Amino acid sequence: MTSTVGSASVTAGIDALLTKAVRRTGASIGAVYLLDREAQVLRLEALCGAPAEFAAPWARVSAAAPAPVAEAVRENRLVWVGSQQEMARSYPRTAVALPYPLALAAAPITGARPWGSLLLLWPPSRPPRLTRRERGRITSCCRRLAELLERAAEEGRPFSYADVPRVLPVDVPRPPPSPAQAIADFAERLPGGSCALDLDGHITYLSSGAAELLGSDAEALLGTLPWLSLPWLDDPTYEDRYRAAVISREPVSFTACRPPDRWLDFHLYPDAGGVSVRIVPVGGAPPAAPAPGNRTATTTAPARAGQLYQLMHLAAGLTEVVGVQDVVDLVADQIMPAFGAEGLTLSTVDSGRLRITGHRGYPTEVIERLDGLPVDTTFTPAGQALSSGIPSFFADPEEMRRIYPEAAPLSGKKAWAFLPLIISGRPVGCCVLSYNRPHTFSAEERTVMTSLAGLIAQALDRARLYDTKHQLAHGLQQALLPHRLPAVPGLDVAARYLPATQGMDIGGDFYDLIRLGDTAAAAVIGDVQGHNVAAAALMGQVRTGVHAHATLGEPPDQLLSATNRLLTDLDPGLFTSCLYAQFDFARRRVSLASAGHPPPLVRHPDGRTAPLDVTPGPLLGVVPGAEYPVTEIPLTAGLVLLLYTDGLVERPGTDFDDSLAELAGRLAAADDEDLDLLLDALLRQAHPAGQRTDDIALLVLRSRTEPAA
């Protein structure tokens, strides 16, 4: 992976600006994400005010993800989330992995191009809105970050993304506090003394009273994580309370039982330097909830809270994927880094063979050897994992050779996790995570990987079904639209069809160009209500009907009347708009009739551009016996006529007339030398983000000076 940004001085500059932004805005936590343009992923570069482990679920964020840091870059705007309720409403996937009370701002780092985003978090006690001064400081910091990165790019200084995010203190770096200083810090935060933790959770101070209540020697506990050194605190619930205190900067409390029956209250008081903990005995009877200390012992240690949130975050991501490639990208961009893996193959079962649908970290020749192996192969452990439904983990090549002597040492990898993808006993495929060095898989890691395998299987099965439906729909759409437009003497023509980006990528918009002998031609555009197979099927019937009546030489009004009678008899339950234009090259006239369709745009040879006033008749298939007035205009040399469907101009919250005037202005300013480029420009300007709630059909026609011989 490469980038043209900066050097060590740039790294220092990023760190200094991040620390300054946190300090000047009063934020408790800050982070800088840099955009990996090649992979379209935002990578966490630096983190301030929290341990790196806390940010593990968000170390890599897809640029297309529904997350604040990604949306800030995509839409080039500051994203503000004032409360946890707002987070759950606007960004449910982020809320799953960040279930704490807080306020959040994500701002784009943008100059000549997008570089990334700045993320800031505050406790929920802050005001619900950013002040103008705070916005100005955030914007200023992002501008300076962009300038720093662009200056380094211009100077050609090499830069590599951080393998592990840099963790910065909120203030200027200082040596770890002495025990006396830790006691002083603790005393400032909380009357009396019990225990102090740093932001990573390590115990930095312990009073004798706290050591007595915890039932352990102070020297043995100092420098340790309490949920690791005290087995009865080894529960995700307790670690989660600590995480909540660090992230929200709000006091938190919980009750725990020290075996066999000593109940203790823990009160946590956080700030930017650490957490003070007050530990007091609980008076009276223990709580009604089962005591964590009385759990039945198991051989598998409970999962850490951070890993649980990471699992929830990844699970939420898998519920949002659409196609098979989306599954591959999410596994590669988020699940691989979560487990430190350097290689991935994701295969699906197809006609008794394992077809590799995605991979990372393997050369092409290795993938070619592995692709298409039988499901019951012994060439790799994937076959056995699929047949048994049990994951296989190999910590080193020796273990692989011992258990699977027939497996070929093909890839050069040193450790593997073979995760069968099974749904209701049916094999879907196999996910293999691999490592470049030997890797011991803990019981906890195996449990999380196994859980994820089930979620990947469900996501992959849904994605394959979606891709199949998409391919069928796309094939139907392409079959119903003209494969190519006929050459018409005297006309230059170009057309486009773009499906809506939501749904099945299929709709009822259509266009056609019909030759009517040597001296005439017809252009038609229409829009059948809906974005489904029924709409596409009716569109095919309408287009066929129009084409049949046009070849009989019927004028525009009679053609639309005949098509209207056809649809009225069919009674499809869907409305259809249509615009029909007949070109008479002998008379140099264009005759038009409309069935409730948006007016075409006309650009005259002198550049004047405006909607053409075509009196519309009723939509097709609605009013039996409807009449359709005809409008005629001169067919002058250089005249440009743009036919379109409403998906090009209709946008929520925007007046149709304003959108139409805006489109006319763009057509007037466009270069019509190449009509294909003209249509591309109109589409790009109308939907710069590439998201469309409706399908779009476009047909542009330009009259030449003389008809071709």
Give the rounded overall mean pLDDT. Answer: 82
Q: Compute the CA-based radius of gyration.
A: 33 Å
**Residue share in β-strands:** 25-35%
Query: Care to count the β-strands?
Result: 29
Instruction: Please tell me what the overall shape is.
Output: elongated
Query: How can the largest sheet be summarized?
Result: 7 strands, mixed
Helical proportion, percent range: 25-40%
**Uncertain regions spanning at least 5 consecutive residues:** 1-6, 284-303
Report the end-to-end length measured between terminal Cα atoms. 57 Å
Secondary-structure class: alpha+beta
Tell me the number of helical segments per DSSP (H or I, 4 or more residues long): 20
List keywords for this structure.
elongated, seven-stranded mixed beta sheet, 20 helices, alpha+beta, 709 residues, single chain
Offer a quick outline of the entry.
The chain has 709 residues and is of the alpha+beta class.
Structure description:
The chain has 709 residues and is α+β, with helices and mostly antiparallel strands. It has 20 helices and 29 strands. Strands 1, 2, 3, 4, 5, 6 and 7 form a seven-stranded mixed β-sheet that branches. A six-stranded antiparallel β-sheet has the order 15-14-13-18-17-16, sandwiched between helices. Strands 20, 21, 22, 23, 26 and 27 form a six-stranded mixed β-sheet that branches. Helix 11 (305-320) packs antiparallel against helix 12 (324-338), helix 11 packs parallel to helix 16 (443-480) and helix 16 (443-480) packs parallel to helix 17. The protein starts with 7 loop residues before the first helix and ends in a 6-residue tail after the last strand.
